[in-house]
Amino acid sequence: MPTATTGDTVHVHYTGRLEDGTVFDSSEGRDPLAFTVGAGQVVPGFEDAVAGMQVGDSKTVKIGPADAYGERRDDLFLDVPNEQLPDDLAPQIGMELALRGEDGQAVPVRVAAVDDETVTLDANHPLAGHALTFDVELVAID
């Protein structure tokens, strides 16, 4: 039976959990996730876990932050003076916004703090700094 190797398009069912057991994503009730091994379409630790699996194999793998969404970075926090915000915006902690990068691309951010003078925005991925556990089942290789 073939094993998943670099260049193969694989189809997997998965459930992703945080260290406290909270499910943050799952393919349950949906089509399997399809990606090409080695193309960088998923986090490195997930890709590494699938490489070498055969159709029908299942496993549970724990991925550290470095092989998932990286460590939280302090340089991705930005303090914005309130007067630079749109007049109709009432920022709340946890609110998701988008900034325009230098290349014109939208950069997703979350409001991390609000005070009388500034709003602190966090551009870290929401799962940055977290170890992730995935239950993975390989269902097909193209």
Please outline what is shown here.
The protein has one helix at 44-50; strands spanning 9-17, 23-26, 33-36, 58-63, 77-81, 96-100, 106-114, 118-122, 132-141. By secondary structure, the protein is mainly beta.
Largest sheet entry: 5 strands, antiparallel
Task: Give the CATH architecture of the largest domain.
Answer: Roll
Mean pLDDT: 96
In total, the number of strands is: 9
Poorly predicted regions are none
- The CATH topology annotation of the largest domain reads as Chitinase A, domain 3
Rg, rounded, reads: 19 Å
Helix content: under 10%
Q: What best-fitting shape do the alpha-carbon axes yield?
A: elongated
Helix/strand order, N-terminal first: EEEHEEEEEE
> How widely separated are the two ends?
13 Å
Residue share in β-strands: 35-45%
- How many helices? 1
Walkthrough of the structure:
There is one protein chain. With 142 residues, this protein is mainly beta. It has 2 domains: 77 residues, Chitinase A, domain 3, CATH 3.10.50.40; 49 residues, Thrombin, subunit H (Beta Barrel). It is 5% helix and 40% strand. It has 1 helix and 9 strands, in the order E-E-E-H-E-E-E-E-E-E. The strands form 2 sheets. Strands 1, 2, 3, 4 and 9 form a 5-stranded antiparallel sheet that branches.
Produce the secondary structure layout.
Blueprint lengths: L8 E9 L5 E4 L6 E4 L7 H7 L7 E6 L13 E5 L14 E5 L5 E9 L3 E5 L9 E10 L1
Antiparallel strand pairs: 1-2, 1-3, 1-9, 4-9, 5-8, 6-7, 7-8
